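BUG: 3D viewer hangs when loading the predicted structure for this chain

Environment: internal workstation, default settings.
Expected: structure renders.
Actual: progress bar stalls at 90%.

Input used:
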Amino acid sequence: MWITNGSLADVAVVWAKTEAKRKIVSCVDFWSEKGTPGFKSWDVHGKWSLRASVTSGLAFTDCEIPAENMLPGAEGLRGPLSCLNQARYGIGWGAVGAAMACYHTALEYAKTRKQFADKPIASHQLVQDKLV
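Structure tokens produced before the viewer hung:
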């Protein structure tokens, strides 16, 4: 669940445990093509955030991926975690940017919204305290 663009992509990179390796950390990355028997994707609707991108769910029911679809050198936790390490920067900066936009929108509204003797609400100490 919660896969960005999962239903739009032609190829899915999936982290899975193989039959031959039963240890928890002995997992490998595979790529699976759209249309592979047993592979299904769907869009998630009714999200409250990150609505700018398509979010999807992926399911694999008796889905057999050929061994040649294994990504070379991506065994264990190193493969998926190295991807997440790079993505964290973008996620962090996206959150900072969203917070800055919210603050600037609230500040502009407080400067233009007039109340009580036709003064902007930004001139009131309680509103200033909330903006700080």
